[in-house]
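User: Sequence in, structure out. Go.
Assistant: Echoing your sequence, followed by the structure tokens.
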Amino acid sequence: MRYPVFILAITAATVAEAQQSPVAPEILALRTCATHADRGAADSALAFGRKAEVLFRTRVTANPRDVDGLVGLARTLSQCLVPSAGLISQGELSGEAMELLDRAIEQQSDHWMARYVLASIAYRSPSFLGRGKRAAHELEYLLRLQGDRTDNPMQARVFEMRGLQLSREGNADSARALWTRGATLFPADSALRALVARPGNPSPPTPQQPQPDSASSAALATSTLETVRVAVSSGPPPPAFPSVHEVPRSQVVMTAGGTADVLQAVQLLPGTTRVGEGSDIYTRGGDASETSLVLNGGRLLSLARFEGISGSMFGALEPWVVKSVRYSSGGFSARYGNALSGVIDIETDGRPRERQTRAGLSLVQVSATTRLPLGNKVGGWVSGRVSRTGALLAAHGRTDEFQGAPHSEEMIASIVATPSLGSELRATAIVETDDSRRILNAAGWRGPFHSAGNTRGAIVSARWLSPTAPVLVRMSVAGSERSTDWNFGVLSREREEHSVISRVDVDWQAATPATLRVGIEHGTLGRTDRGTLPTTPNVATGAPTRSLADGAARAGQLGAYAETELTRSGATLTLGLRGDRLPGEDETTLDPRAAVSYRAGDWTSRLSAGLFHQGRWRAEGAIPNAGIPTDVPTEARHLVAAVERMGVESTMRVEAYVKQYRDYHEAGSGPRVRAGLARGLDLLAQRNDVGRLSGWVGYSLMDATVTLADGSRAHSPFDVTHSATGSITARLTEDWSLGYTVRYGSGAPMTPIVSTIQDAQGLATPVYGETMSERLPAYGRMDARVMRFMRMPSFLLTTYVEVLNLGNRHNVSGITYDSAYRNREPIHTFFATRTVVVGGEFRFR
């Protein structure tokens, strides 16, 4: 899909506006980027487009009702960023631009520029998107709105585009009449004159860029690049909090080895610890339970599939309905509570404004997504996915590894309404089931590990922007349930978890450069365990067990926060305070947090510090392991310092952090823990989606230790010293792309078994050596992905071949012993052998 540059005429109009009044920096940047885009200098256009985007987004965030700001941001996306983007990114950018323009038109229906840009985007969209009718509607509206006005030369483009549309539809007479009328009103317009003079006016081919008259072209010469650079570099101060990574949908879908999975894509970022190849997020040495999961403003228990001894394998969220993913790996805002290490904040798509359908088929799964407007103010979408791994396992000769192929079914749906300007109501529901029976040799037993999971969630959220005051109110109620059923040897456990959490957030933008945010949340949580658990690390037949006897527990949660953000010149200061009564706790905690940032040109420096608490409400493990420190911390102190350079073609970020753990709660049978410390360095060098090459290199250096009850120090269970990921995607042509991803982890620590003793029943009981004194083998994997786009008049077909573990490296997720604890064997990861996946996606209206 290629979106030609189309707004040379709009650029001329911007120049005219600039000559009549003082020009804002964002307008100067937009004018300059459009000039470069028209000349075919996509990289230069992108340089100024990125700057204009930051300025316009800041303007719209401060005032979501700013019609000219909405239109300016839409123009920036469509004129300056689209020409340099890849196919999937182009679709994201053009779709966002159209949504911004719709929001502007809802507030001011006769805004000429908004409707013109919207018509131009729809006019040049690929035919399989079915936007021709929308383009015709907007062009006809502009013609009625314009009448016989001739005050703006760019109005001639409306006659040209609508006439070309009619000509392609076979209405040559109507097209000629419209061009003639336009040429009469704009006699100096060479493009209209040429169309009128064309013999017989035959139906033209696929439309090319309508060219404005020479007067409009000459007006472009007034822009000066040096002036714009100075103005834009003194743009708005950046957000103060560090450690926030944005993961666009295109990155989730295009990254080789990411398996088009949202949580897998997050796990590739620096700040996540390379513990294995599953979807669980271990943030900077913390357990996966220390990173909270937020969807559309509501906190959920889980979005995981195929849970096992080493964690979950995949996420249960279709990437084609995810609008944005924000991953915070430390020092985050007071808005988030009950999280010690990180936050994954996901927002799904909003109200669909045009009908779209997508269908996918691969060696592993079949999926489909439908978006449907339900009137002018309501729309809905639904996405479903069914995964069956039987064909994949059979194709690779791996059926003997499973007693029945793993499978899952999931669906997510949403209804979104915008009843008035600045308001939105959204209801989202998620349902997922999964089942896996992998044959394992672990915990002294060989047999199928049966794991069955079921996830249900519902989030109702609302957003309201005051029409008279700079106040934004957000509300949400999130209910989620997760049930798991595990059977392995003598282990037989059924667990049901549920939560209901409601919250209200209020943002107030003061007249001075200050923002005040306050919020409150309340929740209830419950958990029921049934079945039997082993009392030793052995699950073989005859091993001792204990009955759970329908053990049920409940907990409550209540929290509130206040945060103020002050900006001046290139600096931002954020101060926040949070108070909580956390799940499983009897006392109220107070968490002060602060962050400061300063921007100078393309460089931004950040410093963040704060206190973080999380309740002791955590589920216990199924198989005890006396060699692993498993006590649960409830307090952490963060200090994060970062330096970042956000250039046009690339972004570089360096972050250093120290995280101190305190107030441990006794859990499990391992060595008791008094305190913990994680410190390290995260590096990211990213090439933006520019030209034909994009990707990133991330590296994390970490030292994570725990202080045991006897005063000795040991490695933390998630102390992976080196974690590294490199990913690159090359667009070989407009239709072909090739991507590679390489990942490495230096191996998590483990406690060896050095001998055994016999209990009264004659069963062997392990004797552990020095705590966490050995390490698993280093993890390494290389993946490749080839994609091809095939554009047809009625649909877009995307085909791909993905090779996981290209080097056929037999990676290890753990070590197991036989029932006598004399011999040990590695437990290999799911993708421990080379795996090839072939699939395709259809997209049509």
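User: And one key feature?
Assistant: Residues 42-62 form the longest helix (21 residues).
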